[in-house]
Amino acid sequence: MPQPSSPLYGARPESGTVSTGLPKALKNVGIDQRLNEQVPLDAVFKDEQGQEVRLGQFFKGKPVVLSLVYYSCPMLCTQVLNGQLGAFRNVSFNIDEQFEVVTVSFDARETPQLASAKKQTYIKGYNRPGGEAGWHFLTGDEVNITRLTEAVGFRFAWDEQTKQFAHASGIMLLTPDGKLARYFYGIDYPPKDLRMALVEASQNKIGTPVDALMLYCYHYDPATGKYGVVVMNVLRLAGIVTVILIVGMILVLRKRGPNSTTQAAATE
Question: In sequence order, which residues have a C-beta less than 8 Å from that of residue 154 and are 6 or more positions away?
Fold first, then answer.
């Protein structure tokens, strides 16, 4: 599995010819981050029942987790979906309550029937009440697929030799108004990172005060698609806590001091 530092992730070279060591099928494949860019909310797809829907219908004032797969993929796409499922099951936030999930096939030949079958598999695995209403599996035509994949920087190619699509793996997190906020690479999405990203993308409209503190101490690194500890922020927070404890102890001692003297005099 290519790591975030591999040629499949990050921006393409702006000029010149660079040897990446990748097979020919992977030369135009990868994920280019488009942080803070807008996705096309007017793009039209079909839901699992074959009804036309606009992408913007799934942005209901909550963050959206977006994954691009194709449902007949023999291996990697299933691992991406499995990674999502594992992360969702280990996050206390619920699909349809705190966030939405949109999974889109980038194979224009695939049908709503395929999407419906895939959805039932993962809704059953999620096994929470909001899954059916909040996790959407879409298909679309080549025009709208291209609009979405280009907007998020997802580059894929058909490999005639294997009769499969060559593509990188990862998921994206979008703000409630449809802007790209975070990328998570690979097929394993740490629940802690996903939770922090959801809180951050929601502008702290979900989560707890503890989540806000965690965001203060951890910083998203676009190069790795992960959250890392910000040492200076941790030190600042530790300093603030120390000062609060010291002030608290002084106040307690002052309060207890006169009472202790009075009690001693009364005893004598």
Answer: 31, 68, 106, 167, 168
Q: Residues 167, 39: contact at Cβ < 8 Å?
A: no
pLDDT at 204: 47
How close are the terminal C-alpha atoms of the chain, in Å?
79
Beta strands in the chain (DSSP E): 30-31, 44-46, 52-54, 64-69, 100-105, 135-138, 154-155, 157-159, 164-166, 170-174, 180-185, 218-221, 226-229
Name all contacts of 195-199 with Cβ < 8 Å and 24+ positions apart.
195/91, 195/92, 195/93, 196/220, 196/227, 197/63, 197/173, 197/227, 198/63, 198/91, 198/93, 198/98, 198/99, 198/173
Burial class (CB in 10 A: 0-12, 13-18, 19+), 189: buried
Tell if the pTM clears 0.85, that is, is over it.
Answer: no
Q: What residue type is 175 in one-letter code?
A: T
- Name all domains of the chain by residue range, CATH numbers in brackets: 24-202 (3.40.30.10)
Would you state the torsion angle of the CA atoms of residues 41, 178, 11, 110, taken in this order, to the nearest 10 degrees? -50
User: What does the pLDDT look like over 159-175, one tens digit per residue?
Assistant: 888 889 999 999 999 99
Separation CA 33–CA 172 (nearest Å)? 9
- Three-state DSSP at 45 gives strand
Tokens of 168: 């990188």
